[in-house]
């Protein structure tokens, strides 16, 4: 295609010479006109003709190639556009639209499939359109057609000015479809164990009147916790209990209703991390020894521990010459500690304590009851354990997993883990566990062990000649730990390199207080990106299950095989294709893992809507159509300044843009015409002068 564009000059003389020549013609002419000389104009014609020939005017002709306009068709393949008939309606409209666009001349179509954004970014539809148009000049943009449910989560990614073309939104859903959704409006991330947390919920259902009661089931860590009633379409605050440390996953499920789009968003999940409010520890020290300060320093160094420490050096009935100023100024609060406030302690430690007539049998019996009802007891014993007045021969013997001490073995030894110890969370993978020769611990040695006979429980560390050093047991609802050596303080002093004294005692105390992360028989799941890391711990490797059933947010269950590791654990990795709550069940234990966001955007609001993209479509000159009721609008090409939408049709701009491939110059005065003009002018002037 060629087109006239301009006229230009290609002078045969320098411009200064042409200007001088023009001046030489103009001045005499002006003089003649002023004197009213006859024939002055005719005399001027030969000079003008010569000047025009020397200016050499040229006609410019461009060789133009038309450029096609660019249209973008964005297809929503996100999770929210997969409900009901939306996928089929989308593909049917896409097929008809493809055929209609192929019939349009000079139109390049870019097809963009938009899936869920990474993490919980939702549908980034306008961002995808912006990327597709990034290399397209504004004068080549024909328009954008979006096949979507309208749930775009990046409405500010494009403006009408930035789009530069009409946006047509074809909604794949059904107008006024019903859907019930449960929304968590406010929830804490942390809470104190034993105290309730407040969670604000809102149950939205457009088919119900505001305040109409709806039953909602409550689950905690996969276990049913009863039913509460929520008012429809109003915010309501619930009180949920935190019963243990660590993460508690709450699920709230509203019943499905007929004809709603999905019941996936009828449930909401939230994870609340339980933390203990200053653990209360009662430490009763008896006979002074070199390691007495180990316990006090360890517990005092922890800001989360509220320590009550008493050292009992003599019974109150002892009569000797001790000066009054060196005796205690207050009476030992035995009744308050061992009866009135006993249940308020999270852990009770007896450090080398023996019966000296100070704590009556009745109060020790209270401690035994405290353990069976869920309390934690730790005995750190020394040579006093072999005395007739030791705690093994008291009311505490009912909960102690050992018989009376048989001997005190004063022999240097290195603590070694048993087979159970290498699997038990208290001692498994302790620092330095395998750093010694032949895979033995690289720890320093201890100097004494009390020889006892365990009656039940598990020995996790042994000493001289395989004698128990650390023994753990469960009694009723509570737990008991026995440290059968009073020389662990050698580790804190760095003797022979020392050892993980602080870590061992920390784990021991937290296991006694039932920290979930230290349960020896546990099913643990951890979300890492798009996969679940599953660990099944157990003290008997042969009894570990072979598979774990993983139930996803959509209710689909699958069996994941477990592989046994060298330390007696079983592990597996399962792929995660949907964010939300996943339930792990091995037939004995059940746990809940939240992968990604508990309440993802793509399942939060699932009704189709024009509220998000409608304003942008209107501002850009486009329109909105519901495929289910209006069908696919016809496609028209419209001018850049014409309306781009109307009843039953949508317009794509025909911009008429072109690219210049070359320019041809054609002289307006060919040689023969130039000679004719000059000679003609001279002849006319000669004829006029001849008259």
TrEMBL record:
It comes from the Bacteria. The chain crosses the membrane at residues 12-33, 40-60, 669-687. Keywords: Membrane, Transmembrane, Transmembrane helix. The keyword Membrane applies. Signal peptide: none annotated. PANTHER family: BLL2462 PROTEIN. This is Glutamine amidotransferase domain-containing protein.
């Amino acid at each position: 295609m060629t087109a006239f564009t301009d006229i230009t000059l290609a002078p045969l003389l320098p411009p200064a010479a042409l200007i001088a020549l023009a001046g030489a013609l103009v001045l005499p002419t002006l003089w003649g006109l002023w004197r009213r000389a006859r024939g002055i104009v005719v005399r001027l014609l030969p000079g003008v003709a010569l000047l025009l020939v020397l200016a050499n005017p040229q006609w410019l002709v461009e060789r133009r190639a038309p450029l096609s306009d660019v249209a973008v068709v964005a297809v929503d393949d996100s999770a929210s556009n997969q409900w009901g008939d939306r996928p089929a309606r989308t593909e049917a409209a896409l097929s008809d639209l493809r055929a209609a666009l192929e019939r349009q001349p000079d139109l390049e179509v870019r097809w963009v499939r938009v899936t869920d954004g990474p993490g919980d970014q939702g549908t980034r539809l306008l961002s995808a359109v912006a990327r597709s148009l990034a290399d397209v000049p504004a004068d080549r943009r024909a328009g954008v057609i979006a096949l979507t449910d309208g749930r775009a989560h990046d409405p500010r990614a494009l403006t009408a000015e930035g789009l530069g073309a009409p946006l047509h939104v074809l909604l794949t859903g059904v107008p006024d479809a019903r859907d019930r959704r449960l929304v968590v409006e406010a929830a804490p991330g942390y809470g104190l164990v034993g105290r309730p947390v407040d969670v604000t919920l809102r149950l939205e259902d457009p088919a119900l009147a505001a305040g109409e009661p709806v039953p909602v089931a409550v689950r905690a860590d996969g276990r049913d916790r009863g039913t509460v009633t929520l008012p429809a379409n109003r915010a309501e605050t619930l009180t949920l209990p935190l019963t243990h440390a660590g993460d508690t996953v709450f699920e709230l499920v509203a019943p499905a209703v007929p004809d709603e789009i999905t019941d996936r968003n009828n449930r909401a999940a939230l994870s609340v991390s339980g933390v203990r409010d200053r653990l209360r520890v009662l430490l009763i020290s008896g006979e002074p020894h070199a390691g007495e300060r180990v316990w006090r320093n360890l517990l005092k160094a922890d800001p989360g521990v509220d320590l009550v420490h008493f050292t009992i050096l003599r019974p109150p009935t002892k009569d000797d010459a001790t000066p009054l100023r060196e005796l205690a100024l207050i009476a030992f609060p035995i009744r308050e500690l061992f009866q009135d406030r006993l249940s308020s302690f999270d852990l009770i430690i007896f450090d080398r304590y023996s019966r000296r007539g100070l704590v009556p049998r009745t109060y020790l019996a209270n401690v035994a009851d405290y353990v069976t009802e869920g309390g934690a007891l730790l005995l750190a014993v020394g040579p006093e354990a072999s005395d007739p007045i030791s705690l093994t021969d008291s009311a505490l013997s009912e909960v102690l997993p050992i018989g009376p001490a048989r001997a005190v073995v004063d022999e240097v030894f290195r603590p070694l883990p048993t087979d159970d110890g290498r699997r038990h969370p208290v001692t498994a993978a302790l620092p330095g566990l395998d750093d010694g020769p032949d895979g033995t611990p690289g720890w320093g040695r201890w100097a004494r062990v009390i020889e006892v006979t365990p009656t039940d429980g598990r020995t996790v560390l042994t000493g001289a000649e395989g004698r128990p050093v650390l023994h753990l047991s469960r009694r009723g609802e509570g737990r008991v730990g026995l440290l059968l050596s009073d020389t662990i303080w050698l580790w804190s002093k760095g003797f022979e390199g020392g050892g993980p004294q602080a870590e061992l005692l920390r784990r021991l105390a937290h296991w006694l207080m039932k920290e979930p992360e230290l349960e020896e028989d546990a099913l643990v799941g951890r979300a890492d990106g798009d996969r679940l890391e599953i660990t099944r711990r157990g003290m008997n490797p042969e009894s570990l299950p072979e598979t774990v059933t993983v139930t996803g947010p959509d209710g689909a269950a699958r069996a994941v095989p477990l592989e046994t590791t060298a330390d007696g654990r079983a592990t597996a990795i399962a792929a995660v294709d949907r964010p939300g709550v996943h339930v792990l069940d091995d037939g004995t234990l059940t746990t809940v893992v939240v992968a990604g966001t508990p309440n993802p955007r793509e399942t939060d609001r699932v009704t189709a809507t024009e509220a998000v993209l409608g304003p942008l479509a209107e501002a850009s000159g486009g329109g909105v159509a519901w495929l289910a009721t209006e069908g696919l609008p016809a496609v028209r090409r419209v001018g850049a300044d014409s309306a781009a939408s109307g009843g039953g049709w949508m317009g794509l701009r025909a911009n008429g843009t072109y690219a210049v491939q070359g320019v041809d110059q054609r002289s307006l005065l060919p040689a023969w015409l130039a000679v004719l003009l000059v000679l003609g002018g001279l002849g006319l002037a000669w004829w006029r002068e001849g008259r």
